[in-house]
Structure formats: C-alpha cells, structure tokens
Hints:
The complex is a heterodimer. Chain A is 34% helix and 24% strand. In chain A, α3 (96-105) packs across α4, α3 runs parallel beside α5 and α8 packs across α9 (235-243). Chain A contains 9 helices and 9 strands. Chain A is globular and about 50 Å long. Chain A has helices spanning 45-52, 74-80, 96-105, 113-119, 135-147, 165-180, 192-198, 216-223, 235-243, and strands spanning 7-16, 19-29, 34-38, 60-65, 81-84, 153-157, 184-189, 201-206, 209-214. By secondary structure, chain A is of the alpha/beta class. The longest helix of chain A has 16 residues, at 165-180. In chain A, the strands form 2 sheets. Chain A has a 6-stranded mixed sheet with strand order 5-6-7-3-8-9, sandwiched between helices. In chain A, a hairpin with a 2-residue loop joins β8 and β9. By secondary structure, chain B is mainly α. Chain B has 2 domains: 16-52 and 157-350, no CATH class; 61-138, Periplasmic binding protein-like II (D-Maltodextrin-Binding Protein, domain 2), CATH 3.40.190.10. Helices cover 61% and strands 5% of the residues of chain B. In chain B, β1 (61-65), α3 (71-80) and β2 form a beta-alpha-beta unit. The relative contact order of chain B is 0.11. The complex binds adenosine-5'-triphosphate and magnesium ion (MG). The site of adenosine-5'-triphosphate has 12 residues of chain A, from β2 and α1.
Amino acid sequence: MSDAPAVRCEHLTKWYGDVTAVDSLSFTVRRGECFGLLGPNGAGKTTTIEILEGLLVPDAGDVEVLGLRWKTDDAELRQRLGIQLQETRLAEKATVEETLRMFRSFYRHGRSVPDLLRLFELDGKRRTWVGKLSGGQRQRLAVACALAGAPDLLFLDEPTTGLDPQSRRQLWSVLAEFRAQGGTVLVTTHYMDEAEILCDRVAVVDQGRLIALGTPGELIDALAAPKVVTRRGTLEDVFMALTGRHLRE
Amino acid sequence: MGSGVIFRGQRPHLSPLVELTLARLREFVREPEALFWTFVFPILMSVMLAVAFPARGDRPVPVGLVPGPEAASVRRMLESAPGISVRDVTETGEQAALREGEVDLIVVPSTPPVYRFDPAREGSRIARLVVDAALKKAEGRADPWSAREEPVEVPGSRYIDWLIPGILGMNIMSTGMWGIGFSIVQMRLRKLLKLLVASPMRKGEYLLAQMLARLVFLAPEAAVPLLFGALVLGMPVLGSYAVIAVVCLTGALSFAALGLLAASRPRTLEAISGILNLVMLPMWVLSGVFFSTANFPDVLQPVIQALPLTALNDALRAVVLEGASLRAVSGELALLAAWGILPFAGALRLFRWT
Ligand SMILES: Nc1ncnc2c1ncn2[C@@H]1O[C@H](COP(=O)(O)OP(=O)(O)OP(=O)(O)O)[C@@H](O)[C@H]1O
Ligand SMILES: [Mg+2]
C-alpha cells in the first residue's frame, strides 16, 4: 500500500451558475483516520464529497484519492471506494438481500451478504422490498451497500440522518470496527455529538469555504469559551463562535 | 466480530451481468401492469384479426340498388347471379354507403343501367365487372365459351397469412423499444442510476443486462401470435420453429439496442415517448407490416430495405410462409445484427447516467 494520503484536495472550486458551492477548499485526509465535514445546509458538503467520489467534476482545483486520480484510474478507484449518497435511491421492488447481492457482485473482494445483513441488523428484513422499509432501515441498507466491497476509503454523506438513537450507535460501532481494520472514513454530518465521537479531525465549512480545521478537542479549546463554567464547550459552540450562527438554524 | 472473517469475503456466486439481468427481470415481473400489456396486447391483436379475417372468406360483392321503376327486375337479375349481395340504398344515403365500404358499387335501375363507383378502388372495379356480366347475361347475352375453372388454394396466400408475421415483427419492435426505453428513462428520473455509477459496475454490462432481460420474455411474446395464427387462423408454418426463433431473437436484440440508444439521453418520459414514436412510426408504415413494401416508389426502396423492421418482417415471412432456411435469411439477419451492434456502441458512448 502506498503512503499517499487517503484524500488530498487543493483549491477545490465548483460553481452552479453564480452560486459558488465550493470555494477554493483544501484539506487532506490521512490513511486510517475518520475525517468529518461539518457545516450548515448549503455549505457545500455534498458537492465536495461528490467531487471526491468522482461523480462531479470540479471547475478548478486538484484532487487525489488513495494516490490515484479520476479520469485515469476510475476502475481501480471504484473497486476501492465505498459510497453512500446523501439521497440514496434504490430499486423499490427489489428485496434487501437481492439489492446487497447485486452490489456485492460488482466488487472483486468484500463481505458476504449474510455478514452484511447481520452487521446492519437487517436479517429480519432480507425478503422485504426496499420500498417497504422504514427510512432508517433504508439508510442502513445504503451504508451496507457502501461496505459491500470492503473499501479502503468510505464516503458517508449524512449517514445517520433519520436513524433512531440505537441504529446510530450501531452504525458507529460498525464504523469503529471498519476503522480498526485500517479503513478510512470521510463523513459529513449535522450532529455535533456524532462528529465529536466519530471523528479524529473535523473541517468546518461554511458557504463553500473552510473556516476551521482540527481535532474536535482542539477546536473546542481554541474557540468555544464555555459560557457556563460547569459545561465543557461543544462543536456547536465552535460553530457559533466562527459564524455567529447556529449550525442548524 | 472476528477480524479477517468480515473484510475478506468469498467471491460472489453470480456474475454482475447475471445479477443485473435478474434485477431487471424481477423489476419487470413485479410490475403487474407491464406484464399485463406485454402478454395481453398480442392476444387482443390476434383475436381482433381472427374476427376481422375469418379463416374461410369468399365474401360476395356488395352492391347497392337505388329505388326506381325497374328496381325489382334488376334486383332479380343480380340475385340470380352468384357472388353478389344486393342492398337497398336511398339516393341520399348512397354517398355514405360507398364511402364507408358498405357497398362497392351503386346500380341505378334504368335502361341502360347506371353504375356509380370510384374507379380508383380495386373492389369497385371488380364489382363493376361482376355486375355488368350478371346483368348482360340475364338480358340474354350469349357467352362465346365458358372457361374451365381450376380452383387452387395456395397455402399462405391469404392476406391474414401474410399479415401475422408482420404483426409479430411489429410486436417485437414495439415491446423492445418501449420496454427498454421507458424503463431506462424511469430509472434515470428516479435517480436510481447514480449509486450504480458510483459503484464499480461496468456500464456496458448494465446496458447488456437490459437487453438480455428482454430476451427472456421474448419466447412467450412471440409464441402467442405465432401459435394463434397457426392454430386458430390456419396460417401455414412452412419453416422450422428453430429458425423462426433465431430470427425473432436477432430482431429482438437489435430493437433492444435501438431502445437503449433512444433512451440514452432523455430525462423525461415525454421526451422518450416522442423519440420512440418518431423512430417507430416510419417503420410501421414503410416496413411492410400491413401492406407490401412494393407499394412505395423505387427511390424509397433503398431506405426501406435498410430498415430493421423490413429485414425482420421479410425474414419472418420467408421462414414462416416459404419455409426459408437460416442460410436463405442470412442477409436479413446480418442487417439486423448491424442494427444491434451499432446502436449498442452508440448508447454506450452517449448514455447519460445522472
Ligand atoms: N445541482 C445543483 N444546481 C444548482 N445549485 C446547486 C446544485 N447542487 C447544489 N447546489 C447549490 O450549491 C450549494 C451547496 O450545496 P450542497 O448540496 O453541497 O450543500 P450541503 O452542505 O450538502 O447541504 P445539506 O446539509 O443541506 O446537505 C447550495 O447553495 C446549493 O443550492
Ligand atoms: Mg448535503
């Protein structure tokens, strides 16, 4: 395995008409870490992650993923990435098991379908049509599909939105185990507690620009002077301090 | 959760191509409406044909008679001749009766009688000859001789026999193109393709799977009109069913590929409907489904002969009605194969995945 970083992007820029969705964004994700992208609605998180996933082409800037490049190394990259989209659409009239089997068949290596079903507690829903799953179950299936190929790098765009607390914690434990195997994760989220628990480092993004980068602890210590002495600061406070706004207003 | 076990799984049991084909098939089978139309339409069509073209049909010539002093004697003369059926028509209703094909000719009973008919219509020209001969004979015209008639029934010479292979070809074209075209645009609309593109799925395999899934349903779809024609309508099947199957298969593949090409860009169902109609309409008219391609002028022939539906219909008719061998229809099959390969390659290049 090369020692290139999992993700390196420099001056990434993407316009939609006169909206600058991503504005000269630069950061590096190291191998084996969990890197969080934080920001309010419309900050440019999805746009950024989809550029890194090779689904969007940036208007400017430079991207390297696992030391490889889109356009020249697509086949190799696709085998080594796991992708969960913010808005995952799966065929409604396929069962959970059929969906996983299909995705699994695309990868040279990976987990077995029964393993995945067990891991995401979808055993009982194997024969249920995707269209008949609850939102949270569908979300779990989406992440399961992303893990089907035992990826080196996992992209998760708001993976726990819509999950109940138990499913969230269960997903966190799957991710912890994935990282224990040496996997790298890039995750976007709105949940501050999630970022604090999951992420080694966090990039705070607002209006397409990087406004802070560091470990959750560093950011909290540097920026979130606790208003009440008894309470330690949170990333929510960090965001308030940086933008004067709440993260989800 | 032991390490190793989890991240080093076994190879998948089925290839992506098979999985994708199965996925498409399941989707189709689980969509009751699509299934209904695929199978019911050919049956309905066949039944309608059976009603419109009864197996034995020596239809008498329908002739209209307007009232007049000599109507009764003219009627007697006409009715005594074989193969003429007489209907009373009023002066005001005669236009409509002619226009709607209720009668082929109007007789005004006078001496001499007046025939009203459209000489451009084949049926009317025949009616004129039959009526004229009948009336003159009744008035005492002597025939110089009467020819000896030898009725011959050439199997497969009826219009219905000629029509069924055309219907079959048309069916293969429209279910292939609608089936594939619509399902792909729908997938694109529902954004189902995005996650597939984000995976290592090979795009060519995805497109190929759509075509393969089509073939699974081809067998019953083609068999219905064919067997209905043979068993109920008495169409002779002179060629081998294996050769017919090869022709149907080749035709289905080429129209599936055309369906893929048509569906490679559009983002709305309106757009794909427009494109499919634009592609299929000329072939319905030009490719000899309902009437022979020989009706079109020579300048159009090179175009007509290059169309895939023409090739499919010609090949089907040759095998079904003339018992042609695989070798005899190899030209048509080659043309169909070209119509399969080129659009597939085009679709692969042009396909819009998001
Ligand atoms: N296809 C598009 N066309 C036009 N504008 C777009 C498009 N996609 C995103 N945008 C704009 O780009 C900006 C960034 O959007 P993006 O989806 O990346 O934000 P986000 O951080 O993922 O937000 P959320 O938390 O709501 O998912 C927004 O202003 C959005 O309106
Ligand atoms: Mg987003």
